[in-house]
TrEMBL record:
Protein's recorded name: Macrophage migration inhibitory factor family protein
SUPFAM superfamilies: Tautomerase/MIF
Similarity-based family: Belongs to the MIF family.
Taxonomic lineage of the native organism: Eukaryota, Viridiplantae, Streptophyta, Embryophyta, Tracheophyta
PANTHER family: D-DOPACHROME DECARBOXYLASE (PTHR11954), TAUTOMERASE_MIF SUPERFAMILY PROTEIN (PTHR11954:SF42)
Transmembrane portions of the chain: none
GO molecular function ontology, one term from the record: phenylpyruvate tautomerase activity
GO cellular component: extracellular space
Gene3D superfamilies cross-referenced by the UniProt entry: Macrophage Migration Inhibitory Factor
Naturally occurring in which organism (per UniProt): Salix purpurea (Purple osier willow)
Stored InterPro entries: Macrophage_inhib_fac, Tautomerase/MIF_sf
Amino acid sequence: MPCLNISTNVSLDGINTSAILSEASSQVAKIIGKPESYVMIVGDVNKKLSSAIATILESKLSVPKSRFFLKFFDSKGSHFGWNGSTF
């Protein structure tokens, strides 16, 4: 299950962060071909994810693509609890 965690030192005062996270989450779901409500990482899509997230951060927060790192990791569904169970 992918976990999108964006942290920055850019001031977010006056910025609609929920819109940024919504757009990023939508792109992740689209790129890996899963519904946004239940997303699992499948296959080697890191280059596409990196490009999509970098474009969002650059356009919405003015952070140049060369000024941040993305870390990709694949977690087992059993490591996430939801609705009284695990995935």
